C-alpha cells in the first residue's frame, strides 16, 4: 500500500494487507510508531470522537445509544406493520374461507340438482322403455296370433 503514494491501493495490495496475522500487524505498527506517536494518535481519536473527563469516548457511546433508539423505533414500526399485516391477512383469509364454503355449497347444490335430474330422466326413460317394451310385446302377440291363424 505504501508502494505508490497518493494512489488508491489495488485489490492485490489490499489482499496482501489481510494476509498478515494479527501479531505480524501489531509488530509492524510497533516498529513504525514510537510510544509518543501512538499516544498522540489515541488522544486525537478521543478528541475526534468526543471524550469525557475520564477519557471514555462519549461520542461513540452516544452513537451506540442513538443506534439503540433507532432499533427500538424500527422494531416498533415493524411490530405495528406486522399487526396491520396480521389483521389484513386475517380478513383476507376469512374472505377466502367464505368463498371456499360458497364453492363447496355450490358444488353440493349442483350435485344434488344433477342427481335429481338423473333420477327424473331415469324415471321418464324407464317409463318410455316400459311403454316401448309393452308395445313390442303387444306387436309380437298380434303377429303370433296372426301366424297361428294362418298356419291352421
TrEMBL record:
Protein name: Uncharacterized protein
Origin species: Streptomyces fulvorobeus
